[in-house]
Hints:
Helix content is 21%, strand content 31%. The chain has 254 residues and is an alpha+beta fold. It has 2 domains: 79 residues, Gyrase A, domain 2 (2-Layer Sandwich), CATH 3.30.1360; 151 residues, Beta Barrel (Cyclophilin). This is Sensor histidine kinase inhibitor, KipI family. InterPro entries: CT_C_D, Cyclophilin-like_dom_sf, PxpB.
Amino acid sequence: MSTAPPPPAPAIKDAANIFALGQDAVLIRFGNGQTSNPEKALQFMGLLTAAHIAGVIEIAPSLASVQIRFAPDRITRAAVITALQTLLQPTTAPQTPPPPNRRWTIPVAFGGPSGPQLTEAATLAGITVARAVADLTHTPLTVLAIGFAPGQPYLGHLPENWGMPRQSALTPNVPAGAIVVAIRQIVLFANPSPTGWRWIGQSAFLPFDPNRRDPFALRPGDSIHFAPVDATTIDTLRANDPNGLGGATWEGAK
């Protein structure tokens, strides 16, 4: 006899809603489901990771939520929800994101054939191309979430004037390593793909490579700095980097 899934827990101080997800997971969603709140999701991921709840086996943030998988033979869903509710109380909720575990520097060529829509994006942002490149290379960026394709990062946030919408039509294809922008966020494409975001730069960095020891290069919460280079440098890095990191370097905890 089948049973109906448990109803979502009530909103906790108007901050979040908790939902049952399958047989071994819980989803905690921040906001009203219409807008994203990746900073809140990252904050809670850090708090939940530090709590070391026995039986929780995976924590995966998105732009608006955090999925928590648990081992049913070690902890019940009710116990997981109780732990989440405790962590969400104002006395324990973090006010700032946790410090990044890793700080990446990724070479990127901006504009020209490497980023044919940079001028359009700069115009929409109300700034010059030179100022656009300065924003892109000096704004602290964080991996907000991994999604859409394996290992593919959503990075943010750019200044408010970069809150441009997506295009009304798709660009048929951008290459792996392309840097695209919309709604104050950047996506670094893991594979060739169509996109509704504006193509502004090119890297030789592959966020996902099944042949690497660690196929997923980036993790939510990593910080990202783009180092400007020319297109020839990107070609050289792509041809001479067997790990697919395109000259990127990182420092911090493994």
